[in-house]
Design goal:
The protein is of the alpha+beta class and about 475 residues long. It is built from twelve helices and 17 strands. The strands form five sheets. Strands 4-3-17-6-15-10 form a six-stranded mixed beta sheet. A three-stranded antiparallel beta sheet has the order 5-16-9, with no helix packed on it. Helix 1 crosses helix 2 and helix 4 runs antiparallel to helix 12. The two termini are about 80 Å apart.
């Protein structure tokens, strides 16, 4: 019956396509006469039997689809080269005891040589220290026994101000500190560095380190609640009339600026004649990246250079100055600070250090804002770009304004030359020596062990899988 039905379907399909079906279809023992095909049967056959053109189109679409799938599948396959297919040649050392001993000995010898060389260079640095006020209880490393024996340190008097900040500025006084270059240590080679040293002052406290407003330092005049909380309690201050005004910049770091002023009065050679060109430069002491990216004058600040004092009038609302500012080179400036009536700016807090033209771009201020990691630290104040012969005498005028009695701190003035790693620092060479000595001792120790109890690499007698 299944075969007969199939044969009937074939004949109907042939008639629909216009072909001549056989008159008699062999259905086994049954002979069927030809019959007429209805329209429903014709449409059914046409729908179920695709034309040759449609078969060709479907086949091509399937082929293209397979090609796209194959391309997507291998689109991220790395190139067939050694570096992407991880076929690069490699070398893996076997840590044989001989190699380990040699490596330890080489590290030890190299580090010892470098360490002694650095230590020799550091010890050759001429370092002159004058402690001009101290209130520390245990001296915090200021005694000669705790200090580097190659340093020349002395305690001087006459510059103490006790618990009276800005005392010498208010009294218009100064004191003098003199240094003499030792005759037996050679000349001070340029650049001769001038540092101030502070002992027992903790710039590394977290509350102190976070007490500043970065937006304010970048010139913004508005302040959010978070920055105001970080600056507390030095966010506002009362003026002479008892009115509360803003501090700009605010915070503990900016408002504890080291404001002692050092001026190089003279450098006299061993022959009694002044050395030409021996002046102290106070520019170029801060990081240039800090000056470029971290500090800006307030938004709306204006400064104008004048050719004479008569042309530099501060009258009018476009200027906030009371009188023109005269720079050290004799040039006059007039300037405008926004909201000057309700704000105390840095040049008003520290007029002895910061000029109204520099403001937060003053390099002494920028150096101070980079906080120290230890309670005993030095910061660069200036440098002398001239050779100072042995036996010369350097005289500094000091205006002491930074009080250290309440904090039980100490302060000193330091003059030194330098080498490739900066100023005198015996710890760097000492650390190289310590590491080199440890490596050398380990190398010798392993050599002795290998000589007494030699062990063959890959010896099977040391392999144990399971123990009974």
């Amino acid at each position: 019956a299944r075969d007969n039905t199939a044969a009937m379907g074939v004949s109907i399909e042939q008639e629909v396509r216009g072909e001549d079906p056989p008159n008699n279809i062999n259905l086994g023992n049954i002979k069927t006469p030809p019959r007429n095909i209805t329209s429903r049967e014709k449409s059914a056959v046409q729908l179920s039997s695709p034309t040759p053109s449609s078969v060709t189109l479907n086949d091509s679409n399937n082929i293209n689809k397979d090609e796209n799938i194959d391309k997507e599948k291998h689109a991220r396959r790395p190139k067939d080269v050694a570096i992407t297919q991880q076929r690069m040649k490699s070398w893996q050392p076997l840590l044989d005891s001989r190699y380990v001993i040699v490596i330890y000995l080489i590290i030890g010898v190299v580090f010892l040589i470098v360490g002694f060389a650095i230590r020799k260079k550091s010890d050759a640095i001429i370092e002159l220290i004058k402690v001009y006020e101290t209130h520390t209880t245990d001296m915090n490393g200021l005694t000669q026994e705790k200090f580097d024996p190659t340093s020349d340190m002395e305690f001087v008097t006459g510059c103490e101000i006790g618990d009276n900040p800005n005392f010498m500025y208010k009294q218009n006084k100064t004191c003098q500190i003199q240094f003499q270059v030792p005759f037996n240590r050679g000349d001070l080679q340029p650049p001769v560095l001038v540092h101030y040293q502070v002992n027992n002052f903790f710039q590394n406290y977290r509350v102190y380190q976070t007490s500043y407003d970065m937006g304010q330092l970048l010139g913004k005049m508005t302040q959010d609640m978070v920055s105001a909380a970080l600056c507390a309690p030095l966010n506002t201050i009362k003026n002479d009339q008892g009115e509360e005004i803003k501090i700009n910049p605010c915070g503990l770091i900016a408002n504890t600026l080291f404001n002692d002023v050092f001026t190089l009065e003279s450098v006299v050679g061993p022959d009694g004649l002044p050395i030409e060109g021996a002046v102290m430069n106070e520019t170029g002491i801060a990081w240039q990246s800090d000056l470029k990216w971290k500090y800006r004058q307030p938004e709306g600040f204006i400064a104008e250079q004048c050719f004479s004092l008569e042309e530099c009038s501060c009258e009018g609302s476009e200027w906030s100055c009371i009188e023109p500012y005269q720079a050290p080179d004799g040039t006059y400036y007039r300037y405008f600070y926004p909201e000057d009536d309700t704000t105390q700016y840095l040049y008003e807090t520290y007029p002895m250090v910061v000029s109204p033209i520099d403001g937060v771009l003053n390099e002494h201020f920028v150096v101070w804002m980079r906080t120290a990691a230890l309670p005993n630290f030095r910061k660069l104040y200036g440098y002398i770009d001239a050779v100072i012969p042995a036996g010369s005498v350097l005289t500094f005028n000091v205006q002491a304004n930074w009080a250290v009695e309440r904090s039980q701190s100490a302060k000193a003035l330091v003059v030194s030359d330098n080498y490739i790693f900066g100023g005198k620092n015996h710890w760097l060479g000492t650390m190289f020596i310590v590491v080199g000595a440890i490596s050398a001792i380990l190398g010798i120790f392993f050599f002795v062990i290998q000589a007494i109890y030699p062990r063959k690499l890959g010896d099977r007698k040391y392999l144990k899988y399971k123990e009974d």
